[in-house]
């Protein structure tokens, strides 16, 4: 486990800012204690200082996970968000998409969201903007990337993809053995 | 009674005397083997086990040791003796018994680089005669060293080779070459020692070579650059010069549990920088805003004609309460929208 280098921090923040914008500040500067990001096995974990100090007692090869996994760095040093980060990102989301109950299941199986399944979408959403996906009952379901702007969404045909799937809470079951 | 006692006493005294001064002749069933060179004697006689195991063990051992020592000393007296400073000294012969050595046998010397190479190539040492015939002096001279035959350092004239620079000092050149060879040999010798003792070979640096390769030149440049008093800190750089590769810079990470507040501050600063890098005017955003306004404008116009409302697929979002009708329901109608779409797709 080690702190992130400047380069890695930048890569991660750029990815996070796609979803929560400048609200990253609220993750770093928390009133309820010191929280930090740490890299372990190419994965970024978000944890409190207390947990970190406890985790130092565990040897590196035995440590599977600590705190919350936010995502991982690929071999090409790109950052990929994991679904485990959802709980921390959902409260600060800037752009949201609500999915109709009928296509919720389809999204949770890892499919893109079609226009027909789109319940609501935040006004002003840009193309390729990172969005958080909610059910109509405001339960966060996952992340995605807007394939169309809000304007374009009105005009496209019902089978057109509106939001690209990135991660969903179905992964907790689908990729149970790789999530940490 | 009295006489008896006197006889007894005398006999006892005699016995005690005999005990004190034991005879120098010792009888043994088997003769002992001696190695007077090492003052060594082997007793091959059987031990009396009854005595040995019983309570007279100490006495038995002491008498055995005394007898055998007596025999060894008898043997020493048979050797030629001489008198040195009032002391009689026996001259010991060479020892015949082989004793194991005290220290482990020395390991063979690790081969030098040349010896390794020669073994690989099957090169064997050839014995050359020490003396060779010198045609010039008409006499036998040593093959190498001082006053050697065909001594090229003693030449009073050197022919300038056709390819060489005529102004070059051939004597100086020869001297310099010799010095370099000597230095190189010394360096190799030290390297062999270092390798034999498994010490890390000291920084190789650059060796004089006749023709430097590109890599060697690059190494020479990078070495020369950092060979200043400031370790190259103020060294000027060429335009477009690449940093030297393999300079040995290691990755350094911050400590796992370091200063949390400074870590936080660093991340906040990074966020600030990232924020300031964003353009003030996001063109796509501006265009989208314009499109949206035009949309709502035309929708308001259309609303006058058609009072029908389709709420499905409405996008309230951050609805500004403009009284905007459902976008989807109206979509197929507005012909005036086509140019806007194109604008959006730009």
Automatic annotation (TrEMBL), chain B:
This is Ribosome biogenesis regulatory protein. It is found in: Nucleus. PANTHER family: RIBOSOME BIOGENESIS REGULATORY PROTEIN (PTHR17602), RIBOSOME BIOGENESIS REGULATORY PROTEIN HOMOLOG (PTHR17602:SF4). Keywords: Nucleus, Ribosome biogenesis. The gene is rrs1. Residues 234-244, 261-283, 290-300 have a biased composition (Basic and acidic residues). Residues 231-346 are annotated as: Disordered. Residues 301-312, 319-346 have a biased composition (Basic residues). Signal peptide: none annotated. Coiled coil: none annotated. InterPro entries: Ribosom_reg. It comes from Danio rerio. GO terms for biological process: endonucleolytic cleavage in ITS1 to separate SSU-rRNA from 5.8S rRNA and LSU-rRNA from tricistronic rRNA transcript (SSU-rRNA, 5.8S rRNA, LSU-rRNA); ribosomal large subunit biogenesis.
């Amino acid at each position: 486990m080690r702190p992130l280098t400047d380069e890695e921090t930048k890569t991660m923040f750029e990815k996070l800012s796609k979803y929560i914008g400048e609200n990253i500040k609220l993750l770093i500067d928390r009133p309820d204690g010191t929280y930090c990001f740490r890299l372990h096995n190419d994965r970024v974990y978000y944890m409190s200082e207390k947990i970190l100090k406890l985790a130092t007692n565990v040897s590196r090869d035995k440590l599977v996970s600590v705190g919350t996994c936010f995502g991982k760095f690929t071999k090409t040093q790109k950052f990929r968000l994991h679904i485990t980060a959802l709980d921390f990102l959902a409260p600060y989301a800037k752009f949201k998409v609500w999915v109709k109950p009928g296509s919720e299941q389809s999204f949770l199986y890892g499919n893109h969201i079609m226009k027909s399944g789109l319940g609501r979408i935040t006004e002003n959403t840009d193309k390729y903007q990172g969005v958080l996906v909610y059910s109509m009952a405001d339960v966060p379901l996952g992340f995605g990337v807007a394939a169309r702007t809000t304007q374009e969404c009105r005009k496209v045909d019902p089978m057109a993809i509106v939001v690209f799937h990135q991660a969903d809470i179905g992964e907790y079951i689908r990729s149970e053995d790789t999530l940490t | 009674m009295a006489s008896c006692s006197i006889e007894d006493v005398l006999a006892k005294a005699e016995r005690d005397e005999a005990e004190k001064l034991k005879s120098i002749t010792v009888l043994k069933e088997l003769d002992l083997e001696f190695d007077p060179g090492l003052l060594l004697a082997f007793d091959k006689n059987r031990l009396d086990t009854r005595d040995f195991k019983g309570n007279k063990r100490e006495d038995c051992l002491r008498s055995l040791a005394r007898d055998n020592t007596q025999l060894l000393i008898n043997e020493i007296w048979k050797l030629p003796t001489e008198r040195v400073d009032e002391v009689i000294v026996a001259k010991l012969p060479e020892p015949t018994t082989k004793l194991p050595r005290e220290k482990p046998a020395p390991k063979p010397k690790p081969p030098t680089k040349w010896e390794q190479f020669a073994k690989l190539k099957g090169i064997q040492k050839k014995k050359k005669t020490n003396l060779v015939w010198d045609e010039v002096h008409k006499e036998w001279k040593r093959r190498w060293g001082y006053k050697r035959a065909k001594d090229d350092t003693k030449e009073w004239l050197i022919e300038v080779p056709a390819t060489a620079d005529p102004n070059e000092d051939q004597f100086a050149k020869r001297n310099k070459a010799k010095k370099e060879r000597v230095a190189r040999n010394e360096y190799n010798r030290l390297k062999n020692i270092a390798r034999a003792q498994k010490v890390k070979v000291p920084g190789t640096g650059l060796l004089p070579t006749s023709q430097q390769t590109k890599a060697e030149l690059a190494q020479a440049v990078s070495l020369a650059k950092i060979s200043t008093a400031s370790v190259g800190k103020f060294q000027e750089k060429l335009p477009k010069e690449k940093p030297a590769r393999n300079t040995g810079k290691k990755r350094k990470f911050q400590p796992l549990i370091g200063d949390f507040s400074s870590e936080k501050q660093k991340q906040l600063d990074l966020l600030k920088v990232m924020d300031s890098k964003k353009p003030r005017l996001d063109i796509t955003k501006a265009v989208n805003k314009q499109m949206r306004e035009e949309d709502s404008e035309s929708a308001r116009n259309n609303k006058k004609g058609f009072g029908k409302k389709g709420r499905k697929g409405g996008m309230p979002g951050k609805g500004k309460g403009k009284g905007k009708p459902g976008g989807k329901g109206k979509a197929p109608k507005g012909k005036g929208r086509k140019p806007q779409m194109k604008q959006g797709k730009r």
